[in-house]
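[step 3/7] fold_predict: job queued, chain A
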Amino acid sequence: MPRCFDPENPELMDRPQPVSPALERDLANLRGLNRWFGAWRIVRRVLGPVLRGGGTVRIADLCSGSGDLPRLMVELGRQQGTGVQVEAVEGHPATWEIGRKFCEEEAAISFVQADVRTWEPEVRPDWVVCSLALHHFTSADAIAILTKMRRVARCGVLLADLERCWWATAGIYAASVIYREPMTREDMRRSARAAFSWEELREMTAAAGWKAVSQERFWYGRQAAWEEWAEPGTQKC
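[step 4/7] structure written:
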């Protein structure tokens, strides 16, 4: 299955638009998809051990959407006695506004409006995370983002996304029948075709300078790659 991606014809949620009920419903749907279809599981699997042992862990979450994963990270830390500070980076102005409001009662999360391709942190985070966003970029931009993640992180990096393969695509198309919101349905199908394959992600992490990379498949149609260069729970690299 060749990748089908055209940067001149972006997904509906990526197009210039104001805050609207349609975009709010779409982001709410994505929060549900993240919770029940693998994104939460990946965060728990990889970051759960990191957030044990107390202290404070700084995380930069790139392309944060409406901020459900930053909220999960903070809650995971609280459950394990670790303080978590998240810099949530979102480039789309309307999505950033929705995410900022969704997380406004959580002081541990700061929402930053910035293009992840040009973003630079004021303080280096311990971990840099990017979930369900890499397929929104060209291959060259994706490698540049992965390179930046590895460069700015102090202790570890986590990339989670869809995997482009026939069975995952079939499942995503089936789920898009259940989700009737036009933006969600259309973008789910686009995402399935634009996602990177297992082999492509492995090649891109290598090109970006990731070294001791772990890569796993997750239900349903998700894949993740991560690298850690500090022991779990260690606050200093």
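[step 5/7] annotate
The longest strand covers residues 83-90.
The helical segments are 21-36, 39-47, 68-79, 93-102, 139-152, 166-178, 182-194, 198-207.
exit 0
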